[in-house]
Amino acid sequence: MQLQVLLVAGTHGNEINGIWLFEEWEKSSFVLNTHGVKTCKVVGNPEAKKAGKRYVHHDLNRSFKEDSFLSFNSSSIEELRANELVKLYGYSGKNPCQIALDFHTTTSSMGSCLVVYGRREADLALAALIQNKLGLPIYLHESDEKQTGFLVEAWPCGLVIEIGPIGQGILNSKIIFQTKLILEKLLEQIHQVKNLNFFFPDKLIIHRHIKSIDFPRDQEGHIDGYVHSLRQSKDWHLLKKNDALFYKLNGETIKFEEDEPYIPVFINEAAYMEKNIAMSFTKRELWDFKKEWKQSLIDLIH
Fold first, then answer.
1. Which domains are present in the chain?
2. pLDDT score, position 143
3. Residues 186, 179: Cα–Cα separation, whole Å
4. Residues forming beta bridges with residue 4, ordered by sequence position
5. Average pLDDT over residues 52-65
6. Which residue, 2, 5, 189, is CA-closest to 100?
7. What global pTM score does this model have?
8. 3-state SS string over 237-294?
9. For the segment 137-153, what is each residue's pLDDT rounded down to a tens digit?
């Protein structure tokens, strides 16, 4: 099977910087260097893009579930689109791709980072290559039963690339440049693995998901406090016991009360308010790179 990489922008229709870059790339092949890797570029949720919304019926990036693929009569635009993408570009699809790269933007002050779902060996190998080249944080998202069905999980290898901060529906030169830079570096490294000309690091830094927390709420379930000014825009900063988390207009400060320090991410992410997530907590860990990860990525690409 010939190596192909699926490139996805606009999984959320109001995250438009990647979509714009792809559209410009369609006009001129010189916009972006693929390093000889064959790619398939798609807008993840074109109907949501037209509407200028994150999604139409529900989140496309939570729609890649086994039961969704069995729902041939679904009325959900996102479930139908998930089925369509897998049938077209899945590993056993009409135009099969082995790797999926899903480009997102965030309103939180995350900068640029990679998101890995679970501990698939090829994912960790590819993420390690990029961290080694660009120094990007790796957010390992796992053990969250409420958050499942992510797009990249439907492919043998896949990474989410988060870039921010940027408001929804806004084009920004820095975000576009970062998207282009990371995309080219990913394709470069995939090309290097294909040609067995690579350097895997001995270690990688992982921010492992622990849990997500909601905003403070009153007895009726309404939000009655907001992210404290000392916590706002402090993604990736160590959070210790008694540090401020939220503030209420009555003067009450809600503090972090756990003994173990954590590192918060996706602080005050606009899209997560509907999911009752004010921020997520991670634990920073230094992992040894395993040779099994390298071999898994080589086997997939060759």
1. 4-205+288-301 (3.40.630.10), 212-282 (2.20.25.160)
2. 73
3. 11
4. 38
5. 96
6. 5
7. 0.96
8. CCECCCCEEEECCCCCEEECCCCCCEEEECCCCHHHHHHCCCEEEEEEEEEECCHHHH
9. 999 998 777 788 999 99
